Amino acid sequence: MLTLKNVSIKRNNKLILEKINLNINNNSTTAVIGPSGIGKTTLISAICQLIPYQGSILWNEQKLNLQKQTIAWVPQDFGLLPWFDVHKNISLGIKIRNKAKLDSENQQAIKRIENKLQLTDIIHKFPNELSGGQKQRVALAKAFCLKPDILLLDEPFSALDTVVKQTAENLLLKQLSNSQITTLMITHNLEEALIFSDNLFILAHKTGQLRQNPLKEIAPKDRRENEKFAQILTNLQKEVIDLWRVE
Description:
Blueprint: E1 2-11, E2 14-24, E3 29-33, H1 40-47, E4 54-59, E5 62-63, E6 71-74, H2 86-98, H3 104-116, H4 132-145, E7 150-154, H5 162-179, E8 182-187, H6 190-196, E9 199-204, E10 207-212, H7 220-223, H8 229-244
Parallel strand pairs: 3-8, 3-9, 6-7, 7-8
Antiparallel strand pairs: 1-2, 1-4, 4-5, 9-10
């Protein structure tokens, strides 16, 4: 379980987040929702130990230790190295973690992920030759190959057009269902939050509210077409409009 206890974060002496308390159960997905600038990415940066914070961030009741736990972060800009082709970008994380060349087991695992995310035809291309949807799939493949304890997704579909986005959503849903990874998805898109998450963490006024996704008992792939979806989405939109009005 990923646990945040009374986590507060300042930047340039300005309080961004105050006393965040959040529990994310193992092998579940929590969507952190909030408007731009409210501190969603700041929260991820704290979990990755990239910025100072007050409070505690724990993994299974022990202080989160990046020497012991593996975190995979898929940033908004995908985080691909322009001088590496697709295959080398995907392999890089495993090479760094293992401090060695890839063994046959690693190589087979990478090939399986490349196949599942439909990347086999572009593995020798470079990032500047890829579409936004392709870059996103490469970034996801890189993350899943690490078999992380924690997967952090920062606005994973924000750069994609509608048609590409739907394909990318379906691929990610399949991969998440097969991987059983504890996942934190940052998004301002309420539809994405309802489709992907088990729980919602709604940021407002520098803190957050955790609640169960009303659609949790419905398979993620079936949620958008469910008769309850439109009304639940409308209710959530009305609620957050009030919460975010002064943000």
